[in-house]
Design brief:
Layout: H1 4-15, H2 22-35, H3 37-46, H4 48-51, H5 53-63, H6 65-73, E1 97-99, H7 101-112, H8 119-137, E2 147-149, H9 152-174, H10 189-209, H11 213-230, H12 234-250, H13 253-269, H14 271-288, H15 298-312, H16 316-339, H17 343-347, H18 352-367, H19 378-391, H20 398-415, H21 422-431, H22 456-459, H23 462-482, H24 489-506, H25 510-535, H26 544-557, H27 560-586, H28 603-613, H29 634-650, H30 653-668
Parallel strand pairs: 1-2
Length: 683
């Protein structure tokens, strides 16, 4: 602009712009740049279209006149600061602040400060947590957040900061440090409500994406601290409970416990709205996860059962409706099996889901025996259990019979109610021939704890009779010890004693007769003790208060049978612990006995010597000698002829029905447990 002459020349050249080609135009612009650089810079700032003549001309050739008009009226981007910068395009990405360890340390110090916690600090920390979660959960890697978290160290630092210090800071901000009041009643809750919802949603996402047991443990402890805020939002409560119930039923031991504590805390804070839903969901989950029982799954099933008892005990009035419906459903399955004598209907009852449901309701009624709400359900439950035993009274289902008898014994003990269990136990002694020789020899003893139905091949093993006698002995002793202080004990145990005596006369296996004779002597000793104490009584037997006082006095004083049972129980528990702890260690290294080589002619002499010296076999059988051959003595021959005569006399229609049931069960197959799923609609 300083040289008007050069400006005039350049303007003349520009006037003939339409006649010039793009190449000539570019050359003239380069010449102008050398002649007058100030004017060229002015054109760059104010008229870029003039300098980009070549590009515009190509667009004009292809676009036409309408495109020219649109381009002329399209405003260019604003480069300077303006009031219009407040109205940005909605699609534009927000400015992302990069989070580093120094910034995290600063936030952490603010959360831990002794003074007043500021709302912007909490909001900023929650946004940083959201940015960390977006880094993990976003599929395309782009995050729409004010912050950007990069690197595993920064990610871990943000998560650790929120887990350790955010709950205390929120509590301090709301003024809940000393008073345990509802967060929704706090003055500042409305301000933090939105960020809190966002944080809890992100926390549930993180919880769903983690598989490590250690990390799950940390997050569940954190969720337990945040449970009081989770309960403030019904939608988040239901989402968290759904995830927690899954962890409660299928996680590791520590994870299960922490998940249950979170469920309990959330439900108690919103008991009126959530209790019914939680009870139903937890029971359905319990039934689904109790389908198969093994030594590895027993602890988890027992934990679910105990925790369910805890949940149902929160409100017994609300629980009564659930328990009534579920026991009624069990009774309907049982009725169908009794009325329609088909294998499918019996399978709906004789499975672990049905038995574990009976276990649950017996535990619940026993645990709440001091309260009256659930006690009316005791009688129908006992009737369901006893008729379950009677449904198929065959040898294959002895394990199921023992499971039901154990439930009844515990129920009688906890509720202090007389339940006649002895007939179901003593019936085994009278219906099965324990003198019958086994066809198979098994080194592994049978364990009835995880079995409901025995295969036909197992019935012919040597361990079957041993296991039945052991289980019978334990249950008879436990039940009689439980009733040992009862004023009617001599009358209760009379028929059982007579049937045991009958068994001792007919059974020729010394190990079996030895155990049951010892038990019978203890029962008779206790009966004589009760009769002596009863002879001193001066009150009428129909005086219930005096009878109850007398029984409590006898129980406090102690009875011979109770003393014997306590000693046996301690020894039995020690043996069980040893079996559990050392069973796996010795499984591969069974000891072997080395015997000197003896000619065949001296086998009988050595056998006689070994019999005098004591048994040398590791697992002696009750009806075979050490050489492994079955031997029949004269003493065994004599009772057998009598037994044949007794069997002919005892044949009746009932026995024919039992044989029919056994045949139907054999047709199903030799599976150990028959399992049929309950449909969810049934419950």
């Amino acid at each position: 602009m300083k040289n008007p002459k050069t400006a005039k020349v350049s303007s003349d050249e520009l006037d003939s712009e339409e006649e010039l080609s793009p190449e000539v135009h570019k050359k003239s612009l380069e010449k102008l740049k050398k002649i007058d650089p100030d004017f060229y810079s002015f054109l760059e700032e104010n008229d870029e279209n003039l300098l980009n003549f070549g590009e515009d001309s190509e667009d004009d050739a292809s676009g036409g006149e309408e495109d020219d008009e649109e381009k002329l009226h399209k405003p260019g981007p604003l480069k300077g600061d303006s009031d219009e910068s407040d109205f940005e395009d909605e699609d534009a990405k927000p400015i992302q602040g990069k989070v580093n360890l120094k910034l995290v340390a600063q936030w952490q110090a603010e959360l831990q400060s002794e003074g007043k916690i500021k709302l912007p600090t909490l909001v900023t920390v929650i946004k940083a947590f959201n940015a960390a979660m977006l880094r993990v959960t976003s599929e395309d890697g782009t995050t729409q957040s004010e912050f950007k978290v990069e690197g595993s160290s920064v990610f871990n630092a943000v998560i650790q900061m929120c887990v350790l210090y955010l709950p205390g800071a929120i509590k301090k901000y709301l003024g809940m440090e000393q008073s345990g009041k509802d967060p929704q009643k706090c003055k500042h809750f409305i301000k933090i409500k939105g960020p809190l919802v966002s944080y809890l949603k992100d926390l549930l996402k993180l919880l769903s994406g983690v598989t490590s047991e250690n990390i799950l443990t940390v997050l569940l402890k954190h969720l337990h601290q945040m449970s009081i805020y989770v309960a403030c939002f019904s939608r988040i409560s239901k989402q968290s409970l759904k995830k927690l119930i899954m962890l409660w039923s299928s996680g590791e031991e520590t994870v299960r416990v922490l998940a249950f504590l979170c469920i309990l805390r959330i439900t108690r804070n919103q008991q009126a709205a959530l209790l019914d839903l939680v009870l139903k969901a937890m029971y359905i989950t319990y039934v689904k996860n109790s389908k198969f029982v093994s030594p590895s799954t027993w602890p988890g099933i027992n934990f679910m059962r105990r925790s369910l008892v805890e949940m149902f005990s929160l409100d017994l009035n609300a629980s009564y409706q659930h328990v009534f419906l579920y026991i009624r459903q069990l009774a309907i399955h049982l009725r169908n099996a009794i009325v329609v004598q088909k294998v499918e209907n019996r399978q709906a009852v004789y499975n672990w889901q049905f038995i574990n449901s009976l276990h649950l309701w017996a535990d619940l009624i026993g645990a709440t025996s001091n309260k009256q709400q659930l006690q009316p359900l005791l009688y129908p439950l006992v009737m369901v259990i006893t008729n379950t035993i009677k449904l198929v009274p065959t040898h294959q289902y002895y394990p199921l019979r023992f499971q039901c008898a154990e439930i009844l014994i515990n129920l009688s003990k906890e509720t202090n109610t007389f339940i006649p269990v002895l007939p179901f136990l003593v019936e085994v002694l009278t219906t099965y021939d324990f003198n019958k020789k086994h066809k198979k020899v098994s080194m592994k003893p049978l364990d009835f704890s995880c079995v409901l139905r025995l295969a036909k091949s197992q019935l012919s093993e040597n361990g079957f009779k041993d296991a039945v006698i052991e289980r019978l002995y334990a249950l008879l002793l436990e039940y009689t010890a439980n009733e040992a202080h009862n004023i009617a004990f001599p009358d209760i145990s009379l028929l059982a004693v007579l049937q045991i005596k009958q068994f001792l006369k007919t059974c020729t296996v010394s190990n079996y007769t030895k155990k049951l004779r010892q038990l019978m002597e203890k029962i008779e000793e206790n009966s004589k003790f009760i009769e002596r104490e009863r002879a001193k009584v001066s009150f009428a037997l129909n005086d219930e208060k005096m009878v109850a006082a007398w029984e409590s006095n006898i129980k406090a004083k102690g009875t011979p049978l109770c003393t014997f049972f306590e000693n046996w129980f301690k020894i039995n528990n020690i043996q069980k612990r040893k079996k559990v702890s050392k069973n796996d260690e010795i499984a591969g290294e069974l000891p072997m006995i080395k015997r000197p080589k003896i000619p065949d002619t001296n086998v009988l002499k050595t056998n006689a010597k070994q019999e005098n010296a004591g048994p040398m076999v590791l697992f002696p059988s009750d009806s075979e000698d050490e050489t492994g051959d079955f031997k029949i003595t004269e003493e065994e021959d004599k009772p057998k002829s009598k037994e044949k005569k007794l069997k002919k006399k005892k044949k009746n229609k009932g026995k024919a029905n039992i044989k029919k049931m056994e045949q139907e069960e054999e047709d199903v197959g030799d599976k150990q447990d028959i399992v049929q799923d309950f449909s969810v609609s049934d419950w």
